[in-house]
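Deliverable D5.2: sample structural annotation.
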Amino acid sequence: MIAGGCRAYIGTLWKVGNQIAVNSASQFYKSVFDTTIINSVNVMLNAIEDEQYQDIYIFCGLHFSTEKDTI
């Protein structure tokens, strides 16, 4: 994907529950337009309280990648 032009990928290492996914996405999008994607992933991971899911997400990509607000 990165070779095809994708600058970053966020995925899960195993099945995640809906509520964890919703909360994680909410935390990620609260900060992604103000900082780098990897920093937003870190914010998201730090917000997960359930120990079962604390290491579920993986980030692959360029550490300096950002997301621009197009709205």
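Annotation notes: The two ends are 25 Å apart (CA to CA). Residues 8-61 form one domain.
The annotation will be released with the project's public dataset once the embargo ends.
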